């Protein structure tokens, strides 16, 4: 029995008037079918929500760039693996050669060979210790008289862990290259906080680096020298002709993968500080944009401080794959490079190219880390 409202005296609902409704044939089945259909729709919606959204469609130009980058990475990995295997074989060959030499020698000759090897190792260790002392002295003097170069690390929140790791490797290379220079710069790390700071702290020997480490932003660290700040950005309309020892040059520490275009320029404009770009277009054409990695910019500045020549600095640092063609009044340097490479075996030339690219994009092998620790 189901109660339905009936009309009362005033025309309103009368909830006390019972009416017995006869069930209609097939009505229950229809309701069950409708409910089952709704449950299926809800299940499909849940499945769609759980599935990841398909990646956005790329333009033809973006697809070509992606394919080109993937091919380059695959080829680079293949060459790097080949070089590693060759180094391993060379080490094995030298070890076997040493064992054969000892096996063929008399007891007296063995003793002499071992003493000679120990003496050579001690000589190398003494030389390394001497070089370390000279590096420490040069870096200490650079803190007083060197060109101030700041790496701005305030963009850590815009990068993922992989990109932060890549930037840390670049910073490690910056320090090692600077330590090897005869006239090193006075390097600064500013705005170093969060995961960026944690990754840097995990670097071997980081606490012993002779480098300025500031948790504060550079705008606060140099609040009394704002007029001397110059942000180096490819978006600037001002070209950097010479390095002024009185200026403090800032490099944006950002591995952006082309996601944050114009970010450093906007930041400098908002802060009201000067901007400048390297005179790359005057000496060569880039195959794509003029955006370089942090370590490449630092090395270019160091080369310029050493040679006073922008062209030499660009050609020695910027990888060949990023260059399109050189704009030069004199072709003597190009001819010399051709003559030097003509006599090289193709395999040897490829090996040098791989080593050069690894240096400019950030080393992380054992030997490189050893240099950073000793620096």
3D architecture notes:
With 375 residues, the protein is an alpha/beta fold. It has a domain at 146-322: Alpha/beta knot. It is built from 13 helices and 12 strands. The chain has helices at residues 27-50, 60-104, 107-145, 161-180, 194-201, 218-221, 263-271, 280-283, 294-307, 310-317, 332-342, 346-361, 366-374; strands at 2-3, 6-7, 13-14, 18-19, 148-152, 186-190, 212-213, 229-232, 248-252, 274-276, 284-286, 323-326. The strands form 4 sheets. It has a 6-stranded parallel β-sheet, sandwiched between helices. Helix 5 links the parallel strand 6 and strand 7. Helix 4 (161-180) packs across helix 13 (366-374). The longest helix has 45 residues, at 60-104. The N and C termini lie far apart (93 Å). The model is unreliable at 1-27 and 326-366 (pLDDT under 50).
Question: What are its keywords?
Answer:
12 strands; two-stranded antiparallel ribbon; 375 residues; disordered N terminus; Alpha/beta knot; alpha/beta; globular; 56% helix
Share of helix, binned: 55-70%
Reading off the top of the CATH hierarchy, the class of the domain at 146-322 is best stated as Alpha Beta
- Any idea of the CATH topology of the domain at 146-322? Alpha/beta knot
Outline the low-pLDDT stretches: 1-27, 326-366
- The geometry reads as globular
Strand arrangement, major sheet: 7-6-5-9-8-10
* Average pLDDT score: 77
Series of secondary-structure elements, N-terminal to C-terminal: EEEEHHHEHEHEHEEHEHEHHEHHH
The CATH architecture name of the domain at 146-322 reads 3-Layer(aba) Sandwich
Spatial extent as radius of gyration: 34 Å
**Sheet bearing the most strands, described?**
6 strands, parallel
User: How many distinct beta strands?
Assistant: 12
Task: Give the helix/strand class.
Answer: alpha/beta
How many helix segments? 13
Distance between the termini: 93 Å
Strand portion, in percent?
5-15%
Coiled coil: 69-123
Protein name: tRNA (guanine(9)-N(1))-methyltransferase
Catalytic activity: guanosine(9) in tRNA + S-adenosyl-L-methionine = N(1)-methylguanosine(9) in tRNA + S-adenosyl-L-homocysteine + H(+)
GO molecular function: tRNA (guanosine(9)-N1)-methyltransferase activity; tRNA binding
């Amino acid at each position: 029995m189901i109660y339905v409202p009936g009309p009362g005296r005033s025309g309103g609902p009368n909830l006390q008037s019972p009416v017995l409704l006869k069930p209609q044939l097939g009505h229950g089945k229809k309701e069950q079918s409708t409910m089952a259909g709704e449950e299926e729709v809800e299940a499909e919606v849940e499945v769609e929500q759980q599935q990841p959204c398909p990646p956005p469609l790329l333009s033809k130009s973006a697809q070509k760039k992606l394919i080109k980058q993937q091919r380059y990475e695959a080829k680079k990995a293949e060459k790097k693996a080949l070089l590693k295997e060759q180094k391993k074989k060379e080490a094995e060959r030298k070890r076997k050669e040493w064992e054969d030499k000892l096996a063929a020698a008399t007891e007296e000759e063995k003793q002499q060979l071992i003493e000679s090897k120990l003496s050579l190792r001690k000589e190398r260790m003494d030389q390394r210790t001497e070089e370390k002392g000279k590096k420490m002295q040069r870096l200490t003097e650079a803190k007083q008289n060197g060109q101030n170069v700041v790496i701005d690390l305030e963009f850590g929140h815009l990068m993922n862990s992989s990109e932060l790791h890549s930037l840390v490797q670049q910073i490690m290379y910056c320090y090692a290259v600077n330590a090897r220079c005869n006239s090193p710069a006075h390097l600064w790390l500013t705005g170093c906080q969060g995961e960026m700071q944690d990754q840097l702290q995990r670097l071997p020997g980081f606490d012993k680096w002779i480098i300025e480490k500031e948790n504060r932003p550079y705008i606060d660290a140099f609040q009394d020298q704002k007029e001397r700040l110059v942000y180096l950005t490819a978006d600037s309309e001002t070209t950097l002709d010479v390095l002024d020892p009185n200026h403090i040059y800032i490099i944006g520490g950002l591995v952006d993968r082309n996601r944050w275009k114009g970010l450093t320029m906007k930041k400098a404009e908002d802060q009201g500080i000067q901007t400048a770009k390297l005179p790359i277009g005057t000496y060569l054409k880039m195959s794509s944009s003029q955006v370089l990695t942090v370590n490449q910019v630092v090395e270019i500045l160091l080369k310029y401080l050493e040679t006073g020549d922008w062209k030499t600095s660009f050609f020695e640092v910027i990888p060949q794959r990023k260059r399109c063609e050189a704009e030069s009044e004199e072709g003597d340097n190009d001819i010399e490079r051709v003559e030097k490479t003509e006599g090289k075996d193709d395999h040897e030339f490829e090996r040098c190219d791989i080593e050069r690219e690894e240096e400019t994009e950030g080393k992380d092998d054992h030997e490189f880390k050893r240099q950073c620790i000793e620096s």
